[in-house]
Structures are given as C-alpha cells and as structure tokens.
Amino acid sequence: MLKVIISTFLCVFIAELGDKTQLQTMLLTAKNNSPILVFIGASLALICSSVLGVFAGTYITKYVPPNYIQNAAGILFIIMGILTLLNKI
C-alpha cells in the first residue's frame, strides 16, 4: 500500500514540476500577492482533477485492458511532444 502511495506521489510530483500549471500558479501568486489563497485554489484543483482521473481509470479499466490505456497514453504524449516541437500547440 505504501509503495503505491509513494510511487504515485513521485510520478505526479515529477510530472508537475515546471509544467504550465506550476508556471501559472507562480504567476497567480505574483499577481495576487496571496500565496496561501493561490496554494489552496491550486491544491483543490489538483485534488479534483486527480479524483476525475481515479474514477475514469476505475471505470475505463473495466472495459479496456490497462496495457492498451498505457500504450494509448504513450502515443498521445509522443504526438503532443511532436506538435509542441513544431509549434502547433
């Protein structure tokens, strides 16, 4: 159980470092000069999006094997990376 919690934490934490959400959070903190309020709002947003991901994952894996989901996610990330490099996103 603890292994799942730690691996999930590390995966999400590393994925979120330096992404658009973190940059937007820094901008909102600087703009509003309310770090605690921005932290609360950002934390609630991450919790809500995580809840959606958990429920979607629970539902989808009843019908689609996890390795298909993993492969599809990998392909989508590659496509998004290529589009980003080509300035299409």
Q: How many discrete structural domains?
A: 1
Termini separation comes to 38 Å
Q: Name the quaternary structure.
A: single chain
Largest sheet, in brief, is:
none
Summarize the helix and strand pattern as letters: HHHH
**In angstroms, what is the radius of gyration?**
16 Å
The residue fraction in helices comes out at over 70%
Overall mean pLDDT stands at 91
Beta content comes to under 5%
Low-pLDDT ranges = none
Structural class: mainly alpha
The number of distinct helices, counting runs of at least 4 residues, comes to 4
Per the principal axes of the C-alpha atoms, what is the gross shape?
A: globular
Give the strand tally: 0
Structure description:
83% of the residues lie in helices and 0% in strands. The protein has 89 residues and is mainly alpha-helical. The longest helix is centred in the middle third of the chain and has 26 residues, at 35-60. The N and C termini lie far apart (38 Å).
Descriptors for this entry?
4 helices; 89 residues; mainly alpha
Set out the fold topology.
Layout: H1 2-16, H2 20-32, H3 35-60, H4 66-85
Care to give the gist of this entry?
The chain has 89 residues and is mainly α. Helix content is 83%, strand content 0%. It has one domain (2-64).
